[in-house]
Design a protein that fits this description.
Elements: H1 3-9, H2 23-31, E1 34-38, H3 45-58, E2 62-65, E3 83-87, H4 96-108, E4 113-117, H5 120-124, H6 128-141, E5 147-151, H7 159-171, E6 176-178, H8 191-201, E7 206-210, H9 216-225, E8 229-232, H10 235-262
Parallel strand pairs: 1-2, 1-8, 2-3, 3-4, 4-5, 5-6, 6-7, 7-8
């Protein structure tokens, strides 16, 4: 099932007002949308192994790591963790042939998903054929069933540019559009950006929100707006917050009922 289909199926899980959803159920549903991410320049093989083990424990969709960390030797407790990597990261200012080679190498090294960075400068210059061609080159190097996500750096783009970039990604046969690398000075993800992406390609391409997602309320708002995947580095803390908030909400609903029964 595609991640957007999963989100649509489980939409009630992301409504805090839904008293029928347990904290554990919502926590697991959100975890299943998460790319558990470690893309710091000083990351070590030991840290990546720990990331994979944590992903298996938390039930996340996959891990996302730098291409030089591949191929991974997964820990015994996480033999089936799905692996995502990045291409042209984080600037996107690489020749398309270089991005394509990097993608092909990553797939050969075991990546099941590739998140490529678009050339924001080409977008700003209105070079839409070049933008689409850049994506298409990576798609050709990493054909389906490899999942291709296109990072737009939405905070650096106008609304029209976001929409046209989504259309270029779809025309180049990408599977997802994604908001941010998380490294741009322009900023990270916003609900507004997700709404724009949803209107442009929602239901046909997946939508990944990433960059600066720290709280349960942020995650819920982004999912409600149309995000079908979340890129998180602080995954455990966010999932624990969801569980804590939902447990508190359950307790506040149950307490008056218990008092009433006592009268």
């Amino acid at each position: 099932m595609r991640c957007d289909a999963l989100w649509q199926t489980n939409l009630p899980l992301f409504n805090m007002a839904s008293a029928s959803v347990s904290p554990a159920t919502e926590r697991a549903a959100v975890a299943a949308l998460v790319d558990h991410t470690l893309l710091k320049s000083d990351a070590t093989a030991a840290q990546v192994a720990a990331l994979a083990a944590e992903a298996a424990e938390l039930g996340t969709h996959c891990i996302c790591v730098s291409p030089c960390m591949l191929p991974l030797v997964l820990p015994a407790g996480a033999p089936h963790v799905r692996v995502c990597t990045v291409v042209g990261f984080p600037s996107g200012k690489h020749h398309s042939t270089v991005k394509a080679f990097e993608a092909a190498r990553a797939v050969a090294d075991g990546a099941a998903e590739v998140d490529m960075v678009i050339d924001v400068g080409a977008i700003k210059a209105g070079l839409w054929d070049a933008v689409q061609g850049d994506i298409a080159a990576v798609r050709a190097a990493a054909p389906s069933p490899v999942l291709l996500k296109v990072i737009l750096e939405t905070a650096a783009l106008s609304d029209e540019e976001v929409t046209r970039a989504c259309q270029a990604a779809e025309a180049a046969k990408a599977d997802y559009v994604k908001t941010s690398t998380g490294f741009s000075a322009a900023g990270g993800t916003t609900v507004h950006a997700i709404e724009l992406m949803q209107r442009a390609v929602g239901g046909r391409l997946g939508i990944k929100a990433s960059g600066g997602i720290r709280t349960a309320d942020q995650a819920r708002a982004l999912i409600k707006a149309g995000a079908t995947r979340l890129g998180l580095s602080g995954t455990r803390a966010l999932l624990d917050e969801i569980h804590k908030l939902d447990a508190s909400a359950e307790a506040s609903v149950a307490a008056p009922a218990a008092a009433k029964d006592g009268y």
